[in-house]
Design brief:
membrane, transmembrane helix, Phosphatase PAP2 family protein, PAP2/HPO_sf, two-stranded parallel ribbon, transmembrane
Amino acid sequence: MAAFIFLEKSNTEPHMIHSFIDDQIPFCEYFIIPYLLWFVYVACVLWYFTFRQKRTREYYQLIATLGTGMTIFIITCFVYPSGQTLRPELTGDGMFLRIVGTLYRLDTPTNVLPSMHVFCSSACWLALYEHCRTRMRKQKYARKIRKQKRLLAGVGLLTVAIILSTVFLKQHSVIDVAAAILLNIICYQMYYKLIPMRYRKRTPSVDEGESVFYF
């Protein structure tokens, strides 16, 4: 947090992030709803993996993913300061426009690459996906399996809405979104595929769902 505040107050000239696709995406103030729901979404997922679910491994996978992403974000902002000029001049009146105006005043259009809104929401969905997939594999009752699938679908729709909100509110370029998704894919492959595979090869007697810390 201290590093982010320092970056926000830095006077370094940012590199402007822009794509021709950004010009084709209209501004829509109603996307402020999923954009702000991001804070509740990430907090709830972190609370669940910290206090409710019993697999320590899944908690560390999520924390390692978020920590890696945020560290790379801070390093990127130091090495390649970024900014954008996509925000429109807000005209008219209405509750949603006023909220967007407040967001624009509080959140400067700098340090945008990659989008942390996109990275964190995608990381949370992937953590829930792996968690539910493990539970469904061990579940015998079709009703509970359907419940898990509905949960994943609902959270997936929220995640997509959050990602779309970053470009429809002109908070980010599609380049920021693509960079965040790519970073998430790399972290997912590392913490959910490669490292568990190496660990299981070393200790084949350990069950996949057992609570172990192997990082």
